Amino acid sequence: MVIKLKEQATKPERLAPGHRFCAGCAEPIIIRQILNAIDEPVVVGAATGCTEIATSMYPYTAWNVPWIHNAFENVSTTIAGAEAMYRVLVRRGKIPERNIRFIAIGGDGATYDIGLQWLSGALERGHRFIYVCLNNEAYMNTGIQRSSATPMGAHTTTSPAGTVIPGKVQWRKPLTEIIAAHRIPYVAQAAPSHWRDLMEKARKAAAADGPSFINVISDCNRGWRHGTETSIEVTRLAVETCYWPLFEVENGVWKLNYKPREKKPVEEWLKMQGRFQHLFQPQFKHVIAEIQARVDEEWESLLKKCEAE
């Protein structure tokens, strides 16, 4: 089914305006796109992080759907428990079948790092839920500390660029591939700049007969250091440089969703963000070359997985 923007715009908002996300933050954009794409009733769980803080400042809430907050690490366990309880109550005739979709939301800190053990366990057990990683590439809510999703060369408060190190020295963790290795029904990588692709993936995730996972790059202009008006542009450039390729793994089959007509150099993406400005100094220029080489290597590997040319 083709997703039409005008039809989506007429749907009731499941995430209300008046929340406290920063201006220019990609997280509420992503959440609205995903929730608008899913027609079924939803129950949402959110790990501790920007989403939880911005949407549930006591005594207010921005959620127009049932919503659960739990600790930093265990939103996947919480939503898996809710899904299991729902199935039991339906089976026992306590409540009617309503085709409810259960969605867990976590940042990269709660997904790549602190919550990976709980997420892996929920996937292995086969609970039918959607896990959405809002990947802003650092612990933004607590002061812009590096996570295992933070790109090489990025300046954060715990990987500060200076005379000793040129920002973070490690490459990011390949989490989407790690999740795909669990052999769950549906895994995808997406970006809010390509909204139709993201919404179609949300629908596929909701239809999957088992666990599903969507890793969405989520621009944080406070941590990435750029203007509030360029968040979507920066995200789009991440896709065009193949730093953040769009693909899906459906029942073990890899598929490339978007191939740029002209693959742009990753330098164009880096120069739009203050967190990488030190890399353009003569002593750190080699890091840009290392990043480009790694992006090229991963892109070629992805093309082979997807059997694309």
3D architecture notes:
The chain has twelve helices and eight strands. The mean pLDDT is 96. It is an alpha/beta fold. Strands 2-1-3-4-6-5-7-8 form an eight-stranded mixed beta sheet, with helices on both faces. The chain is globular. The chain has helices spanning 5-9, 27-37, 50-55, 75-91, 108-113, 116-125, 175-180, 195-207, 221-224, 231-240, 266-270, 285-305; strands at residues 42-46, 67-69, 101-107, 130-135, 186-190, 212-217, 247-250, 253-256. It has a single domain, classed as Thiamin diphosphate (ThDP)-binding fold, Pyr/PP domains (Rossmann fold, 3-Layer(aba) Sandwich), CATH 3.40.50. Helix 2 crosses helix 8 and helix 4 packs parallel to helix 6.
The coarse silhouette is globular
Radius of gyration: 19 Å
Return the domain count. Answer: 1
Largest sheet: 8 strands, mixed
User: Can you identify the CATH superfamily?
Assistant: Thiamin diphosphate (ThDP)-binding fold, Pyr/PP domains
Helix content: 25-40%
Q: What is the CATH first-level class name?
A: Alpha Beta
Kindly report the CATH topology.
Answer: Rossmann fold
Mean pLDDT: 96
Secondary structure category: alpha/beta
Q: Assign the CATH architecture.
A: 3-Layer(aba) Sandwich
Number of strands: 8
H/E order of the elements?
Answer: HHEHEHEHHEHEHEHHEEHH
| Count of discrete alpha- or pi-helical segments spanning 4 or more residues | 12
Main sheet strand line-up = 2-1-3-4-6-5-7-8
Strand content: 5-15%
Q: pLDDT below 50 for ≥5 consecutive residues: which ranges?
A: none
Distance between the termini: 27 Å
